[in-house]
Structure formats: structure tokens, C-alpha cells
Amino acid sequence: MPFEGIHNEKQLLTQVSQGDRQAFQVLYKACYPLVQRYILLFEPSPHILDELTQDVFVRIWEKRDRLGAVESFKGYLFLVTRNVVFNFVRALKVRQKVKELDESSSPPANDLENELLFKQYYEIALEAMNKLPPGRRKVLKMSIDDGLSLDEIATELQISRSGVKKQLYAATAYVRQYLQEHGEITLALIIFLSLFEG
Questions:
Q1: Is the domain of 174 the same as that of 126?
Q2: Pick from 13, 96, 87, 91: nearest CA to 55
Q3: Under a CB-based contact definition with an 8 Å cutoff, are residues 43 and 88 in contact?
Q4: Which of 10, 51, 125, 184 places its Cα 20 to 30 Å from the Cα of 73?
Q5: What is the mean pLDDT of residues 42-67?
Q6: How far is Cα 143 from Cα 161, in angstroms, rounded to an integer?
Q7: Which residues lie below 8 Å from residue 165, measured CB to CB, with a gap of 6+?
């Protein structure tokens, strides 16, 4: 069922996929209330509702080239919203973990130092990812950057779910090993490694 205010959904999605900003504005206005309702299913904090809603539309615009092939935009919108919220919650958990470990460490951790270490580890992780075979690297990026589930990756790449799981496990294990070999073992590294737990 098309959204209220959208007369030809398929045509509108095609226009947005081609970079039509006016078409995107129509989509934005029609879908904004629904995105907010979706977000509240997962994260009932009103103070971040608008921020997460904007993030959803940013993600849709960045991935607009996919819209032409979308059969059910409501389903697609739900998945994008869910992934944005889950990524936000995951990042919150990592920040909370950093805070808890910082508070229990002695002497107190230096925020600037930690920030520099995380940047260094991120660069090392990128090096490791670039050394992966192309297919394995793509699976890892789809999982981390796009927040896609195993089933979603399997559908998009047209491979089995077990194949995706095997590739993802091998990729994360390699990145973790590479980080351990090339990064100085610190509290920040241990926290950073938690992002690549298989």
C-alpha cells in the first residue's frame, strides 16, 4: 500500500535513485511520521527521536541507487530504521563500556589520548580490511558499515546464510588478529577489539 501523499511510489523511488532532490523531499514528508513511529518501537527516548529520524533519511539518500530495485518501500524503510537504531544502541554500549573502564582504571584515562588511540586502531583495522579477499571484505563492510544482518547480506549477494556467516567470522577473526599484532596492547585496544567480536 503506497504512502499517503505519494501517487506513484515506484516512479518516485526511481526519481530519487537518480538524484532528484525534489522527489526526495516528497518522500521525506510522506515518510517522516512513519519513521518516527518505527524508531519508537526500538528506542523510546524522545530526545533523540529527531536525530535518529534524520539519520535514517541520510542513509536512504546515501544509498539511493538501491531504491529503483526496492519492491516494498515500507519494508525497506523499516529495515533501514531498525539498522540505524541498532547501530546507535551498539555505539552507546561501547561508549558506556569505555566510561565504566575509564572510571575503574587508575590513573584516570586521558580522553584525548584514547581518542588518538582509537583513530590509530581504526587506521590499522582499515589496513587489515584492505588485505582481505574482495568478497570477504564486502561482507564485513556490509555488516559493519551498513548494519545488515546475515540474512540481508545473503539476499543481496545471493549466497547462503551459512556462507555469509563463514565469511564474516573469517573476516572479523583476521581483523582482530591483525589489530593484536600491529597495535600496542592497551585498554583502548581491548575496547576497540570488541567491535570486531565474531
A1: yes
A2: 87
A3: yes
A4: 51
A5: 85
A6: 13
A7: 150
Residue 67's φ and ψ, nearest 5 degrees, are -65, -30
Collect all residues with Cβ–Cβ distance below 8 Å to 21 and sequence separation of at least 6: none
Spatial contact of 4 and 32, defined as CB atoms under 8 Å apart: no
Predicted TM-score (pTM) above 0.85: no
- pLDDT tens-digit map of 157-195: 889 988 888 988 888 888 878 877 776 655 555 555 555
Q: Are residues 194 and 118 in contact, defined by beta-carbon separation less than 8 angstroms?
A: no
Please check whether residues 98 and 126 belong to one and the same domain: no
Q: Which three cell numbers stand for residue 92?
A: 552507546
Q: Residue 186 carries which DSSP code?
A: -
Grid cell locating 84: 540505524
**Alpha-carbon distance 14 to 120, whole Å?**
40
Select from 64, 79, 105 the last residue of a domain: 105
pLDDT band at 141 (very low <50, low <70, confident <90, very high): confident
CB 135 within 8 A of CB 197: no
CA distance 134 to 148: 18
